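To: structure subgroup
Subject: Chain for Friday's discussion

All,

I'm putting the inputs and outputs inline so they're searchable in the archive.
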Amino acid sequence: MTSKLYHAAALATKSLGVGSAPQDNIIDCVQLHAGLSIAAAWIPIGGLDVATLTANILTMYARINKFLGISFNENIMKSIGSSLTASLTSNITLTGIATVFKWFPGIGTITGGIVMGATVYATTISAAWIYLTAIANWAKEGKGSSNNLESCIEDVIVQNKKQINDIIQNKEATYSA
């Protein structure tokens, strides 16, 4: 796990005034969901793998919110998840290619699982970093509406493209090694 993710978790807990105890829970949660994303990548049915990955990331966000004492309804979480997912389109493209490989039994499933595993692991880690950084910014701005959080997410993505790419590249290399 990158030091950037630890820093983002610490910043989010500090910004919300919930103490440092949830920080370890958040990191454990992200590690669990990154691992689950790899498992989901090996689902041999194209489409079901992507649906499972989406549910995994949304569940991770909900769990992070619980650790931080934030409550949003399901529709807002889906909207937030959609904005994050849209921002990680390069990885989604690779996921789509991996899904196509899975249409060919045997070697296609193996190739698709390997390509998708590295991609979704990195995507899950970077999505958590984006979300935690946005929550810290949202808290600093006075915890307005969920629309403000969506705006904070978009700002984090626009202002930190290099850092996000570094996290993704680092995680893909870690997974591949």
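Points worth raising on Friday:
The first helix runs from residue 3 to 16.
The chain has eight helices and no strands.

D.
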